């Protein structure tokens, strides 16, 4: 089929992947049940709690270590809503395109997070939670 015919046809989308890389995700109920894992044949080294984000970043890192060449990483909203995933890709210098949920909040300007100063009446442990200095907005806005 020539390019013009392909462009004008009613064909659906195309999905391509450079490689297949799998990691075993175990929910807490499995990690906390060694007998169940043993019965299922899960190797002992895999019987640890790792989030899906950790596993996904591990896969990207592993493919780069193998020398696989790719221009960008794509992910659905499950990963697009996870700041740790986005920061992890950014820290690795990866270009990425991810879906996000329409109600996800983003910062158009650098939020310049800071710990709020302690007021004179505060008791207990010092504050440690970072607070944005700019306003976030919903993606669909």
Question: Can you give a write-up of this model?
Answer:
The protein has 141 residues and is of the alpha+beta class. It has a domain of 27 residues. It contains six helices and six strands. The protein has a two-stranded parallel ribbon with strand order 1-2. A two-stranded antiparallel ribbon has the order 3-6. It has a two-stranded antiparallel sheet with strand order 4-5. Helix 4 packs parallel to helix 6. It is extended. The N terminus is likely disordered.
Search tags:
6 helices, alpha+beta, extended, 10% strand, 141 residues, two-stranded antiparallel sheet, single chain, 6 strands, two-stranded parallel ribbon
Radius of gyration: 22 Å
Shape call: extended
Residues in helix, %: 25-40%
What share of the residues does DSSP label as strand, in percent? Answer: 5-15%
The succession of helices and strands, N to C, reads HHHHEHHEEEEE
Strand order of the largest sheet: 1-2
Count of DSSP-assigned helices? 6
Please give the alpha-carbon distance between the first and last residues.
41 Å
Instruction: Report the major sheet.
Output: 2 strands, parallel
**Segments where pLDDT lies below 50 for 5+ residues?**
1-14
Q: What is the arithmetic mean of pLDDT? A: 84
Number of strands: 6
What structural class results from the helix and strand content? alpha+beta
Give the arrangement of secondary structure elements.
Layout: H1 3-8, H2 28-31, H3 34-40, H4 52-65, E1 73-75, H5 77-80, H6 83-91, E2 96-98, E3 105-106, E4 114-115, E5 130-131, E6 137-138
Parallel strand pairs: 1-2
Antiparallel strand pairs: 3-6, 4-5
């Amino acid at each position: 089929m020539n390019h013009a015919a392909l462009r004008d046809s009613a064909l659906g989308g195309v999905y391509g992947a450079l490689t297949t890389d799998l990691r075993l995700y175990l929910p807490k109920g499995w990690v906390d049940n060694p007998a169940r894992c043993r019965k299922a044949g899960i190797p002992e080294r895999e019987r640890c709690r790792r989030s899906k984000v950790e596993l996904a970043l591990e896969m990207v890192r592993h493919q780069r270590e193998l020398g696989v060449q790719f221009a960008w990483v794509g992910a659905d909203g499950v990963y697009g809503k996870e700041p740790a995933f986005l920061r992890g890709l950014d820290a690795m210098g990866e270009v990425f395109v991810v879906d996000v949920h329409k109600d996800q909040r983003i910062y158009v300007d650098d939020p310049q997070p800071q710990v709020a100063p302690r007021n004179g009446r505060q008791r207990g442990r010092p504050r440690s939670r970072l607070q944005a200095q700019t306003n976030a907005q919903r993606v669909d806005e």
